[in-house]
## 1
Amino acid sequence: MSFTNRAVIVAGAIALSGGLATAAQAQEHTLRLQTHFAAESVSGQMAQEFIDDVHVMSGGRVNIEAFFSSSVVKSVETFDAAATGILDVDMTGGAYQTGKNPAFQFVGDIMGGYDTPWQQYAWLYHGGGFEKANELYNQFGMELVGWWIPGQESMSSSRPLRGVEDLQDWKFRSPPGLETEIFAEMGAKPVVMDFTEIFTALETGIIDGADASGLANNVSMGLYDLVEHATYPGFHSMPSDHLAVNKAVWDGLPDDIKRIIEVAMQKLAFRTTLAFEVENNKAAAELRARGVNLYDWSAEDRRTFRVAAQAAWQRWADRTPEARALVDSHVQFLGELGLIE
């Protein structure tokens, strides 16, 4: 055999082995992720972009299998499903887990606190929030990777919502946790139900309205095909949707893959907040043109809500040491920003 032929065979063998190695390396990690958002919603589309970013940046080593609209388990059960290995990744929000520890309220929806998503991100990344929050997640076998915050949510209603007085006997879908107490004290009748049940409950008149999501997501869900009143700009709720991973799974990932997921999550956060600033304004213009009534609550009514919410924080803070630690951290940071008296 000539030297040239040997070289060709060796080169071919090297190329084949390299190809096999690349194939073996591809889809080295498969992660099963569930989100409560529908795939066609603005948030669902952005979640898919995050999944694509991780796949591309990892050179195909990470494949994320996504389940939208809480298609595996109910939204509130996603965290446990990830912690126990039914799933790997929870892409819902911490506020669903207040039954485990009231502290989850203050990593999920700090009601009546921050005015903008950027202020809320600042607590996580610059106010010592991440370390305190992750200690809580780790207690339940999960790792907090990051937040994506669309902005202030809007309440949707079949009745006018001009201010505090209109809350009297208003029956609405509420997520579990602090919100139910605040609004009940203000005269409303909150009903806790799964995110995926909102449309049917409104359609059948089981509820008068809903705290579902931001204006753009509410439009994509078709809520304003059923009701013609909403609060906008929002003021009561600004959930931090999270990315949380089974801790054993997370700890088993290589450092470069962890970094890729963290960076992709921060991109998702940035793009989400920017996108919803645009999309919510577009949605507002569209809804006004359709004759939907949008109510911007007065400064006095907003203050009434914030006072009630911040009083409730302190009651919740007394329930567990973890809740107290998080509330105190938020209060201190809000004070530094001049947002709380």
## 2
Amino acid sequence: MKEETCLLTVEDALKLGRDEVTETYRKYVNPGWAALQSLLEIDFNYVRAEGCVVWDEGGNEYLDFVGGFGSLNLGHNHPAVLEALRRVEQAPVILQTALGKFAAVLAHNLARAAPGELQNCWFCSSGAEAVEGALKLARIYTGRKAFLSCTGGFHGKTMGALSVTGREKYRHPFEPLLPFCINVPFGDAGALERALREHRPAAFIVEPILGEGGIILPPPGYLEQARLLCSRSGTLLILDEIQTGLGRTGTLFACQQEGVVPDVLVLAKSLGGGVAPIGAYITTAHIMKKAYGGSLERGLMLTSTFGGNTRSTAAAIASLEVLLREDLPRAAAEKGDYFLHRLKELQEKYDAVEDVRGRGLLIGMELAGSGGLLDYLTAGTVQRLSANFLSSLVAAEMLKKYGVMVAFTLNNPRVIRLEPPLTVGYEQIDRVVEAFDDFFSGHGGFVQLALKSGKGAVSSLLRN
């Protein structure tokens, strides 16, 4: 073993400066991600966060409109969630020889909040793990092998979740993945019907709104049609509400806006109140009993070491309570309508903004691509810059010049996602809109950034 004196402590971590963080992360975690952040000059050292606001080591203030990719519906460090963790700090966190009372209470509360007859929960530590569990549930319940999912959809990066994720860029390096996974176009009920008939899948897994696909809304009635078609074919409908759930789109669950009840509802991200990692699926008592309730051996197939632990479930209990008590889904709907209206004004004003779309506080701003944003912003100076990095560069400039955090979507990098906490204030929304307005009106910041990156840096971006 290496010398004990080489180990760093929590106090050491708290004292690290920006350059030390970047170098240590580059050396011991993910060198590619560290290099990209350093190249874009956004490797800031943040030391405090509250609500929608984050502060760096120099005391500079930033608005967080990334929101942990939908994990921070309550904002950073919500006091009710922190208080729940304090209340259980002396309780056993993991005790495998006993039933988890906090897991039981959380499951009860989710059953009361979820639509239809959804009742039985399985808890784990992440969204991808919850997707894995839902796929296994579908196979053991139906006895079938195939899965349908949507082109452009995103369900995680573990092997099973990746197998039903709809972008080749992420799938190809890890093939062969799970067999019998078929993509269908999102929003095309006819294509879904044909695939259900041809493949007789165990499940159709779909996001109510494609998040990483670029904040793509389905045609009206699509989820209702999917529900009907899956019921007819004996296929389970799995709705992945990891990003859309828990108030994000203006109702507690996005499926409620079409009156659709899935067979399996998958949750994670903000379920833990932005503090504790937790994922879950919730299904009907009938499905759970047939799948895992028939024998002791079946029941032992449904375990997860950290799933349902005291702290994550206590945080989730508090998070759900705050969401409902403060009626944050309604707040998301009202603030989202306001935000969309303000952003659509920018779309009408600037050719650089190709589209603005979303529901509630899940909003995407699509930038014009080659021949659009590139020509508009750079007058042909940086034509070689790939469209895959346009929103990354815009996001970097928004952070450095305006103190606003935004990010791109994984399956459509021309789309800037805007997912502030549901507690965001109208004045904070106005500040972000004004920052975009100033950026697009001047557009020199993008040119300077691209030129400053230099030929070698741009080539590096394009290679990656």
## 3
Amino acid sequence: MKLIQKISRVIFSRATIAFLLLAIQIIVIIFAYLFFSEHLLYFFGGFTVVSTIVVIHILNNRQNPAFQIAWIILIFALPVFGIFMYLWVRSQLIPKKLKSRLKLLHQKSAAFLPPSEIPSSEIKNPELKGMASYLSANNRYPLYSNTKVVYFPSGEAFFPDLLKELKKAKKFIFLEFFIIERGKMWNSVLEILKEKQKEGVEVRVLYDGTCSISLLPWDYPETLASYGIACKQYSPLKPFISTYHNNRDHRKIIVIDGKVSYTGGVNLADEYINEKMRFGYWKDVAIKFIGNATNTFTTLFLEMWNIDAPYTEVFLPYLAKNTTKESGFLIPYGDHPFDQEEVGKNVYLDMIHQAHECVHIMTPYLILDHEMITAMKLAAQRGVEVIIIMPHIPDKLYAYLLARTYYEELMDAGVKIYEFTEGFVHAKVVVRDHNCATVGTVNFDYRSFYLHYECGCYLFEHPVIPSIEKDFQATLQKCQKITIQNCKEYPLWKKAAGKILRLFAPLM
């Protein structure tokens, strides 16, 4: 089994696919030289004309300029492969069907959710009012108050609390994760799920299909079904079938009885609770909600569960009315890749633009488009303290090399960058001005902003925010500050590799 998983990792890796595509390009060039040597000018001239037409079409699309530039470079650098790759991507039917299906599901779930607990007319703070208008009115994610929130500064702190809450379940348990891997963490959860199912609790598990090529057996949903647990994989990987395999379910959502929910960076695998060390200490976070805000996470889960169903179940029986009393405000939100609305990215942008004193960021990846770079630089130049905590030990070398290409430009504008020397940072946290924060699954990279299903929660003047800031400051004490001199002394080959990778960052 382990051998098959290792082989699968190699077959489906981006490096393997890139190598195969490059090989196809070379074969076409050799074929053209051998069989059309007398007409090479016409052969490549024809591809130049077609390339130009395709580029004009790309420039007139409603698309982020970074994606446009990446496609244009690819088409002119590798015209044969680039043209057919672009046409193939644009002609895919599955993403178009998913877009329609998600729109319908989101409209139905929004109808089940109650309106914002505080009317827009009664919101006095303009920053909260603006975000509530964007997320509530435009995206149908209600504003809540009276929801208790608990922040966990590590996977080890989150894990026992999760087990305790799972054991309390009386009606249903929903789990949606990007990664599930057998080991202490998942096995402990699974034993509770089995017991709860025997007690009559409805249990559903949804995980991303990438697990099936490296972490779980292909037929694992059938294994869970034998325990009475309903299970689905989102988009199991199949070789070269559709580009929608590029859109992964990166969410981490747990809902228990419609009363308690969790999200954050922690997946159900042992490295997230540091039972297994892969890249030094794994710094991650999770956040728990007790109250009506859980209803949004319930609908987010049910939307994904029903995405490939021939019908749409009624969500209302899974929504609960809670009587929790708590101060502060929060808006849980989701994001998906087919609506041309980058919710996760826009929440970050708004927080940075609205900052007066500080913006504190923890992220595992830093692969930024022009808008995000400009926002960070402008905030720092306005006198806002912008601090980014990054991993010192990366889990993906190419992503780290890419991130390093942004360091010097950001620092020149006054942004401060630190690296967590004890290992890898997987947390996705932003705290602004000590009264606003967001925690969730959204990384600062193209995949999270544009390609993945994501989720998070926007918090404003909530009593949990000091705990989030305290964790940021504690993590900062375990970091080294990156300087301009560090950037200048960085190995030349790593700088060159990062700059080359940056050309194609939106397509990676």
## 4
Amino acid sequence: MDDLFGAGQDDASAGDDVDAEESGGGNSPSGTPGRAAPRSPLAVRMRPRSLDDVVGQQHLLGHGSPLRQLAAGTDATGPAGPSSLILWGPPGTGKTTLAHVIAKGPGRKFVELSAITAGVKDVRRVMDEALTARDLFKTTTVLFLDEIHRFNKAQQDALLPGVENRWVVLVAATTENPSFSVVSPLLSRSLLLTLKPLTDADVEGLLRKAVTDVRGLNGTVELGDEALAHLVRLSGGDARRALTALEAAAGVAFGDADDADGPAGEAGKAPVTIELKHTERALDVASVRYDRAGDQHYDVASAFIKSIRGSDVDAALHYLARMLEAGEDPRFVARRIVISAAEDVGMADPTALQTAVAAAQAVQLIGMPEGRIILAEAVVHLATAPKSNAAYMGINQAIADVRAGLGNGIPAHLRDAHYPGSKQLGHGKGYKYAHDAPHSVATQQYPPDDLVGRDYYQPTANGAEREITTRLERLRKIIRGK
């Protein structure tokens, strides 16, 4: 599985494709009538050949950086430090590309494994071959392991001898947080580099280069401003997605040109213009970057709840749409909404919890896609409601006291007096029935002796709690006899 520019083939085969295309005129989009189809996708053909060609990630590519030193064939961290890398970042940010560039250093051999298909046996075979190559041929093996987070502990442990003894330079790629998905011994022996999504300017520059570069579309097309903006917007900072979308849009544009004027893109023909309509037809819907089992699941859910808590209804609806469009279980979303109603809105608007529970039940009855309307209504209610976490903070403080050993016993007059012999123990003696007192509030002690006067619930001045504050002050004075 390739990470930035395509098909996971080795550099030699990629170079053969480029040479064939540059000499054979196969620079037009594949599948275009009347032209030779290229032997590899545009994203593969545009793969950088050196670190200077890499788009984005400038925070990792400065002079003297570990990546620069590894690509030059020197140790990235000195004789005592790790020379293996773990590259963490979203898809399409250059993890595979960096591995290929590093492998081009002097005295390097490139081996690629995918954690999806490889096992411990494959890892051990690579380690044995790497040791032989190092001892007999003075060649360093660069092992690129894609999707390392899919390796279990035993599989990752199999990498340790080779990394520890530097039989290989491990370049492991992952889209998941390595702190959770990579075993500690391997993490401590490797240099962790975090890759960032490409900026809009990065993607725009890459697309413009692909249009003119001999390895790309070689000037057979021109890219309209609206089409360019559409491709940049839908790329989501993913270089591979941007180039794949450009190639698809070019195919649509060539098809229209062929229908109108006969075969386009031939030698001597004017370039075909890719317009917004071509990108819209080529790209029906932007794919949503969201992994229900990984970081994005938690990050988007966190942003969703924090937007509701912060009363930003528009952001909350965006994250709701993002989760639903990515196929998130609507029941998970509904559960988070119920929790938010109790934790963040609380008694400032007691009806918010009723709305949230009703929404959760209704979504189970109705299902999707109509369930999105119900969830949206609940989100709007919670996001625009006054907020209070007083009940949430109150129970947390009460639990903290219980865990600290406070709350010794129960006042005798509150204890159960129904079973035989309880009255002889003094249970229930002196209990005042609240409904017999004025306003149904009696003066008597309810908490244990060591918690008398402890105020757990501190209502805010927001929403319905404004009135609760006044009533609570009166209740506490009567109950405590003050």
